[in-house]
Amino acid sequence: MTNKLKKIKMATSEPCAFHIPIDRRRFFKSMALVSAGFTLPGYLAEALTITPQVTQGPYYPLANNIPLDKDNDLIYLNDSLTAANGIVTYLTGRVLDASGNPVNGALIELWHADREGDYVYSASAVRNPACDVNFAGFGQFLTGSSGQYKFRTIKAGLYNGRTRHYHIAVTVPGQLTRYCSQLFWNETAYDLSGNAWATQNSNDSVYTGITDAAQRAAVNLTYKAVPGTTSGEVYGNYDFVPGLSPVEPTYPGGSFVIAGAQVAGPTNSVRFKLSIPARTNFTYEVYGNPTMLDAGSVTNINLPHRTNMGWAALPFALAQTGRINTNRITAKTNGTRSATFPIPLRIVRMVVSSSTLDGRCKVTTP
């Protein structure tokens, strides 16, 4: 998964360089697992319960199934203005470490079935053709210093053999794999015809497989109506506590410098180009949304489309005047790689991942 997170301020006129100092901690450290059962010790014991780790499931989307504008708004796909079918649902919360502190730079992912019970996952197509064409099917959020996250999606659909559920996963800085869990509904599940579903929480293999009662209760959420709305929108809140301590790994070489400048685009347009000092087998993604640096609280969850919904992966072109058709660069050799964006970059975060190294670097903004 991802292994480097940085927040960079970009000027939109003069060429400039950004130096990101990194500490000297070792890149790999073993995660500090909570040793005393599932519940945190001390004064946080009653407030925090370790998130149960369960199967990722078979429908985590493949790379080509994931939308170009990876973000945390699942009800709209890329630039479409048509919302997905279903009950709009907001999911908010925090990512906390083993001591109950907010985790900065955690990558939190959400994926689930559409209203009809179909995932976007497909091994033979860009996306499952049976899935709602307006449903993103997958979203992700990068936490800030508050550890807060926020998603806008729809109520998960039902499919044979499972109760209603969300898949949710977190990768904390320094973690080698995503920590997967599932969230459930504290209600009787009914199909779209109003009939009670055959698989409820009580006989769902994943839900009943969570043997610790406190953990099972923690992921069984009660969704409430969003105040002031008449369209049936609901929200739920869940603090994700993987019981892991984040590690501040180093980027190879100890620092990271990115040059950014305005350049000429196609047909007299202006683009913004980043020159990335890439390393072999590393993948680079750029996220941006200058309207919101943190997730906000449940008191402001009823927000217009694409307003304060969080950090989205920014699509770009690999050539200065090329087609905007990707959201990542994977380097086959060391050297400078260019990413050219159709919009000015004001505040961005960069995520760097590697097939051999993992974890994220702490960033000091110059």
Structure description:
Mean pLDDT is 77; it is low at 1-46, 290-309 and 356-366. The protein has helices spanning 205-209, 213-218, and strands spanning 2-9, 16-21, 88-94, 107-111, 138-142, 148-154, 165-171, 179-185, 220-221, 224-225, 234-237, 255-264, 270-278, 282-288, 312-313, 329-330, 335-341, 347-354. The longest helix has 6 residues, at 213-218. It has 366 residues and is mainly β. It is globular, with a radius of gyration of 21 Å.
List keywords for this structure.
366 residues; mainly beta; Protocatechuate 3,4-Dioxygenase, subunit A; 2 domains; 5-stranded antiparallel sheet; 5-stranded mixed sheet; 2 helices; disordered N terminus
Architecture blueprint of SSEs:
Blueprint: E1 2-9, E2 16-21, E3 88-94, E4 107-111, E5 138-142, E6 148-154, E7 165-171, E8 179-185, H1 205-209, H2 213-218, E9 220-221, E10 224-225, E11 234-237, E12 255-264, E13 270-278, E14 282-288, E15 312-313, E16 329-330, E17 335-341, E18 347-354
Parallel strand pairs: 3-11, 8-9
Antiparallel strand pairs: 1-18, 2-12, 3-6, 4-5, 4-7, 7-8, 10-11, 12-13, 13-17, 14-15, 14-16, 14-18
Q: Can you describe this structure in just a few lines?
A:
By secondary structure, the chain is mostly beta strands.
Report the principal-axis shape. globular
Per CATH, which architecture of the largest domain? Sandwich
The CATH topology of the largest domain is given as Protocatechuate 3,4-Dioxygenase, subunit A
Helix-strand category: mainly beta
Q: What is the chains' assembly state? A: single chain
* Quantity of strands, as a count: 18
Estimated radius of gyration:
21 Å
Poorly predicted tracts of residues? 1-46, 290-309, 356-366
Give the name of the CATH superfamily of the largest domain: Aromatic compound dioxygenase
Helix content: under 10%
- Quick one: CATH class of the largest domain? Mainly Beta
How many angstroms separate the termini? Answer: 26 Å
Number of domains: 2
Largest sheet: 5 strands, antiparallel
Beta-sheet strand percentage?
25-35%
Number of helices: 2
Order of helices and strands: EEEEEEEEHHEEEEEEEEEE
Arithmetic mean pLDDT = 77
